[in-house]
Structures are given as structure tokens and as C-alpha cells.
Amino acid sequence: MGIALAERETGRSRPVIAIIGDGSFQYSIQSLWTAAQHHLPIAFIVLRNNEYAILKAFAALEETPNVPGLDLPGLDIVALAKGFGCDAARLDNLDAIKGAVAKAWTKPGPTVLEIPISPRVPPLI
Question: Would strands 16-21 and 42-48 be described as parallel, antiparallel, or unpaired?
Fold first, then answer.
């Protein structure tokens, strides 16, 4: 959001895109409200794999399997985004994603796009 505010303030108005996973998104969801209140044309891309994959990777590295609370089934990111005042959509088609991102930067506020990805816990080393 700071970049979008700076782009507005300087008059450059370059497009701003934020890419975040669905788990990490839970740590910063309040930023949607601020972006909506300031009418910032940000495209938020939320990659949805229904889990905190990075925390699962840390658990594997630390040899602590089956940590509870790392699966995220049932989150409705689109409804959450709309509740904070953003436009939002769930998309799984590349052409639709490209079109929605381009359109996001023409709107007078933030757009949240939920994109499903394959669940895969990456190795940390």
C-alpha cells in the first residue's frame, strides 16, 4: 500500500501488484480495509493452496510433523475481501486472470484475485 500511496503522491501512478499466499494473507488482511479507504488501485493476488505451506516446511525441517492448525480449508477469501470493501473474484483461467489484473488498475480501489495453486510443501534446504 505504501508503494501505491507513493505512486499517487508523485503522480507516476504506476500499477501496483501484491502477491501473497493464503496463509500469509491471514497476517495482513487488515491492509485491504486501508487500501479500500484510500481508494488505491492495487491488484492483490492471493495464491490459494489451503495451507500454511511455509510453516509445514519449517515443521519438516525441525522434524515436528503433524503440527495442528496449518491446514486452511474453508476460507472464503473473496467474501473476506468484499467485506473489507474490495472488488474480488476467484479465477483459475490464465486469460481471465490477465484480464482481471489489467482491469484492476483501472478501478478506483483494490481488487483481490484468489488463484488456486497446487498444495506442495517446499523443502527449505
Answer: parallel
